[in-house]
Design brief:
Elements: E1 16-19, E2 27-31, E3 52-56, H1 70-78, E4 82-86, H2 96-115, E5 128-133, H3 135-145, E6 160-164, H4 170-179, H5 188-191, H6 203-219, H7 227-238, H8 244-247, E7 252-257, H9 266-276, E8 294-299, H10 306-313, H11 322-331
Parallel strand pairs: 3-4, 3-5, 5-6, 6-7, 7-8
Antiparallel strand pairs: 1-2, 2-4
Helix pairs in contact: 1-10, 2-3, 6-7, 6-9
Amino acid sequence: KDQPTPPPPPTHPVPYRRSYGNHPSQIMDIYPSTKHSSPVNSGSSHPSAPPTVVFVHGGAWGSGHPYMYKLVGMSLASEGINCIVLGYRTYPCTDVNGQVGDLIAAFGYINDAVKAHEFTGIDPESAIYACGHSSGAHIIALSFLKESPDRTSICNIVRGFIGLNGPYHLWQMYEFHRDIGINDVGPLCPANGGKENFDRNSPVLILEERAAAAKAERRGGEGNMPSGTRMERKKAQSKGKSRNCAASFPRSLLLHNEKDCIIPCSSSERLHRAIASFKDIGDDEGAHLPSGHSRLVILPEGDHFSTLIELAVGGDKDGKSTLLKELKLFCC
C-alpha cells in the first residue's frame, strides 16, 4: 500500500523561547531569519549576516505578551531579518522603572547570547536593533537615557532604534487624552508613579535638557541655562559622565501615522528634533554611535495600530510597504 505523501516542511520560522529572569513575563521568543538579507548599506557584494530586530510590544504599560506578536516575528523572519519578540513585566506587576530595568537586563542577555552563538540560527556577527510600538517605543527610548550603576549602556549594544507611534512626551500624551476624554482609561499615571514623574520619564524632555547643557558647555559656560539643566549637568559631572551620555542616543528611524488618534504624530516629530539637535555638538569623546542621526517618516494613512498591523501581516511582496522598505534600508 502506498504511503501517504508527507507534508512539505513549514515555510515559516518556528520560534523558540528563552528566559532572561525569574518572572514569567521575562521571556523572549526568537524567530531566526529564513533567508539572508541583501547587503543594502554594507557596500559589499557579499551577503552579510541578517540583522536582529528586538521587538518590544506596547500595551499602555499594562498589557501584552510575546505570544500576541507571533506574526511580527514570522513576518520579519520571512523578510530576512532575525526577530526577537521581547516580554517584560507590565503594570501593576511593576512600574516604568521596572520595565526599563527588564529591557536593560534583556538586551544584555541578548548581546551576550548572540556573541556566544547561543541562539540557534542567529549569526554571532548579527547587528542588533531595538524596535518598539507605542509604549514599547517609549520604554526603549527611556532605557537609552536612564542611568544605572550596574549596566552597560544599551546604546553600546544596539545599532539603531526603530520607534513606531511612540509617546515620548508624557504630558503631551496626557493632555491629548484629557481633551478627548480618555485620560483615565489606561495606566499612564500609575505606571509612571504619578503625574509628578512625567517630566523625568519623557525622553524628549531629557534629550532637550541635555542638548541645552551640552551646547552651553561647548560655549564655555552655563549662560542662561535653566536651573534644572544646570543641576543635571553638575550631577553628570559628579559621576564622571560626559555630555555624550545623551549624544550616544543611537541613530533612529521614527515612523508615525498622521491620523493617530491615541498618540499624536507631534510626539515623534519632537523626538526627531531633539535627537537631531545633537548633530552640531560633535562626538569628540568617543560615544559608540554618532549623535544626531534621526529619520522621521510620517505616514499619511492609517491609525495608531496601522504600523503594527503592517509589520505583522504586511510582507513586502508587492514592494508597496513603506514601513518594511524603511526598516530594511535602516537595518540591512
